Amino acid sequence: MALLEIHDLRVFYGNIEALKGISLEAEPGHIVAILGGNGAGKTTTLRTISGLLRPRSGSITYGGKSLVGMQAHAIVAMGLSHVPEGRRIFGILTVEENLNLGGYLIRSNQGLVKERKAAVYALFPRLAERRTQLAGTLSGGEQQMLAIGRALMPDPKVLMLDEPSLGLAPMLARSVLKTVREIANRGTAILLVEQNARQALAISDQAYVIEVGKIVLQGEAASLASDERVQKAYLGGFEAVAGA
To answer: Can you give the pTM of this predicted structure?
Structure first.
């Protein structure tokens, strides 16, 4: 049994079926890339796993326990963290204060909070240099580092990242994704929704391609990176995969 297993997940927005039987899994230390065009269902998948959306049917199992019906904060407490698209940091708070909020579940143990912040600062030295700076004045890359760092404060076993390189300069995007690989190498399972398919596949172990709420391709990331259908889709649109 995988650490995280999603089986036949169906999610609706009103009468519109957004996810049409999604199944995927993630193992500790592995990065699972979720690729697809705009509106394919990638963000919906992450939001459903993290408890922000409720599925109509299907199962979400973490460590053998069902997450369906659980509130989002309880899912975080179990060991799953979600970094949404757009970062969603608190701009009027400092870097340090944002990290403190990320550690709200362990706030009664200030020694542990301090230890976790030290680990985040070691992973992102630039944040350590700006710990007293208002988060809203950080660069886009620094804000993304902070969003990831805040999600790491509870020491999650599963980390879900929605478009972590969006809006970043190419060099900084590569740096952020390299750090994502480092986090996985420490044993964290990562679900990665990423616009840059080439870079996502380069650092991932497994990959799923979603189109119109369905998984149309899946397999080892290296194999999908060399798959002609995937290459064609990313050059000319996901219709090529959907019709493959």
So the answer is: 0.89
- Rounded CA-CA distance 201/12 in Å is 29
HEC string of the chain equals: CCCEEEEEEEEEECCEEEEEEEEEEECCCCEEEEECCCCCCHHHHHHHHCCCCCCCEEEEEECCEECCCCCHHHHHHHCEEEECCCCCCCCCCEHHHHHHHHCHHHCCCHHHHHHHHHHHHHHCHHHHHCCCCEHHHCCHHHHHHHHHHHHHCCCCCEEEEECCCCCCCHHHHHHHHHHHHHHHHCCCEEEEECCCHHHHHHHCCEEEEEECCEEEEEEEHHHHHCCHHHHHHHHHCCHHHHCC
Domain with CATH 3.40.50.300 in the chain: 4-79+158-242
What is the distance between the alpha carbons of residues 126 and 129, in angstroms, rounded to a whole number?
5
CATH class for the domain made up of 4-79+158-242: alpha beta
What pLDDT is recorded for position 166? 83
> If you search the block for the tokens 């970062």, which residue do you land on?
87
* Rounded Cα–Cα distance for residues 50 and 185 (Å): 22
Tens digit of each residue's pLDDT (9 = 90 or more) over 216-233: 989 999 888 887 777 776
Strands of 189-193's sheet, edge to edge?
80-83, 158-162, 189-193, 31-35, 206-211, 214-220
